[in-house]
Amino acid sequence: MNIHEFQAKELFAQFDIPVPRGKAMKTPRAAEKWAAVLDAPVFVVKAQIHAGGRGKAGGVKITRNRADVPALAREILGKVLVTHQTGPKGRKVRRLLIEEGAEIAKELYLGLLVDRDTGFPTFIASTEGGMDIEDVAAQTPEKVLREAIDPAVGFQPHHGRNLAFALELPAMDNAVVKPFLSMLDNLYRLFMEKNASLVEINPLVITTDHRLIALDGKVSFDDNALCKHPDVQAFRDLHEEEPLEIEAGRHNLNYVKLDGDIGCMVNGAGLAMATMDVIKLAGAEPANFLDVGGGATKETVAAGFRILLKDKKVKGIFVNIFGGIVRCERIAHGVIEASKEVGMTLPVVVRLQGTNAEEGRKLLAESGLKIDVATDLWEAAQKIVAMKGKRRKR
Amino acid sequence: MSILVNTATRVVVQGITGKEGSFHAAQCKAYGTHVVAGVTPGKAGQDVEGIPVFNTVREAVRKTEATTSLIFVPPLFAADAILEAAHAGVWLVVCITEGIPVNDMVRVKRALASTQTRLIGPNCPGIITAGECKIGIMPGFIHQKGKVGVISRSGTLTYEAVNQLTNLGLGETTCVGIGGDPVIGTGYIDLLHMFEQDDETRAVVMIGEIGGDAEEKAATFIQREMTKPVIAFIAGMTAPPGRRMGHAGAIITGGQGTAQDKMAALEAAGVRVVRNPSEIGETAKAALGG
What we know:
The structure holds 2 protein chains of 2 kinds. Chain A is of the alpha+beta class. Chain A folds into 3 domains: 1-20 and 103-241, D-amino Acid Aminotransferase, Chain A, domain 1, CATH 3.30.470.20; 21-101, ATP-grasp fold, A domain (Dna Ligase, domain 1); 243-387, 3-Layer(aba) Sandwich (Rossmann fold), CATH 3.40.50.261. Chain A has helices spanning 5-14, 28-38, 69-76, 133-139, 157-166, 169-173, 177-193, 230-233, 243-250, 269-281, 298-310, 328-342, 357-365, 377-387; strands at residues 22-25, 43-47, 60-63, 80-81, 91-92, 96-100, 104-114, 121-126, 145-148, 196-207, 212-214, 218-221, 254-257, 262-266, 288-291, 316-323, 348-354, 371-374. Chain A is elongated, with a radius of gyration of 26 Å. Chain A starts with a helix and ends in a 7-residue tail after the last helix. Chain B has 2 domains: 10-120, NAD(P)-binding Rossmann-like Domain (Rossmann fold, 3-Layer(aba) Sandwich), CATH 3.40.50; 138-287, Succinyl-CoA synthetase domains (Rossmann fold). Chain B is built from 9 helices and 14 strands. Chain B has helices spanning 19-31, 57-64, 75-87, 102-112, 156-167, 188-197, 214-225, 259-268, 280-287; strands at 10-14, 34-39, 47-48, 51-54, 68-71, 92-95, 118-120, 126-129, 133-136, 145-152, 172-177, 203-209, 230-235, 272-274. In chain B, the strands form 2 sheets. Chain B has a 7-stranded mixed beta sheet, sandwiched between helices. A 7-stranded mixed beta sheet of chain B has the order 9-8-11-10-12-13-14, with helices on both faces.
């Protein structure tokens, strides 16, 4: 789960990680009032959406004049920001973070995530703050520093010293070395205690008055551990999620909306991805990823059909089930019942393989419904791509 | 021969009195696996399909000489269950549970490093040596004793590949589901090494997916160490960046972990990369000389 910058900064403050004074506001009027309380030499007005690249898209404004704040707020609120992370549709700005600006002497990068290879939480740091770390890694890999933390002992001061000296922090500003070590310690605590999957401070700035401040903040959480953290769950913002994905979540279905026109419903995540790939190979684009899980009952299939039908782009549906423990004839019953229940109007190809696949295919063929049946994955994909958009006869 | 499990393997099922645990324990037993014990704390003395239940893994191991554990414990208790098995002296732990917090696995992986125990999974279908021993939730009947080793991050997609191998008469030696999570116990490289050493295995099918760089690392190993043909399919060619595709580990982040990069790395290492998943079996057949 992702959260907003202002929420990440609230969390940083709880863990004694210094952030600029600031608050999130929903109206120009509230922004004006808060600016008066903040009374800073420089004001920063930042759009709050779950995507990077806000600055370039016009979602971040800076002013030295307090009287400008409401006008800037009016300009950004309600605007749809299109950045390299939002996709062409963009995201609507519903909230602003209004905070005190910093006099920046130096910008750094600091991140923490689990290295999948070693299984160790690992700090990533760089002197190239303010840039996408992926770009730094691609262009100047020697400027990306890594420090792995042994989870058995946790963060130790030497981890901090290794990074501080490698970054040449003492030469930049000796006053920030100690605060830097505490910051790493606090960040590690936050990461482990809150089950974060990524913490990123970009930029981490050294100010002209020798302070170290998290000027931006991004935190993502491990969905598997959310049940342990009601405070983190409260950060969820449904406006930032695709409505169909929220609905699928209610039925315990794993759904990701894509841009194509062949809807697909599959049991198992790997096979679901492979099915999307096969649709593409057959000459069309998948409309979604949908894993109905191992069970694939009548209820889950019906819920899946309803979600696929709500996507108006969908012109054909490909159901791909490998019956393992779940028997195919039960799935066939589920598909038949669900098709009747939702009044299926689109072409459907069902490919069944595995336990009792033949009985399942027979049931579908004899159902009286216009459902095409297939055995082979490739044959099924070609069928649905050829049929898409054609109206069903009968 | 085969790898990791065979007719001598003795299995204890943790969480055996649960719905999943009892069902699959019985299925494994029916396949011919020696399921010698089950564990559910507080339920010692009961039995499930004739399998005696113990309170602790330690007790189960002492009384039944179980060597391998199969775990069906709910996600928030699974880390403890894995460590319990390791500390009881079980040398192979197969964890089926999906949804274990990553930070739990971080601690477990570190703790296992100081034991003799190997972990397969979590979030995996398990491991099977065709015709000998099934430790997991895969449908046994699609497997047939043969000559191809299978390593996969997925469940049903593995069944798809296995089904093709069986239908073409190639059959399998051992099939290992390594799991779809970002932090897993055993990766491709250890298993590739074992398959390379195994006399019966003549080729290896590797089924990867987007996320991380395990396939790229495996490619380097294959180029250096493997003499047997390797066939690979990578799922998620059409997956968008930044979105988790069902498996916790299946996500492209910061341009890293794309199917295209993985396929390119594997191809450069001499692996036969299959773009159409319905051609996995045929490609394996061709690699073995038709």
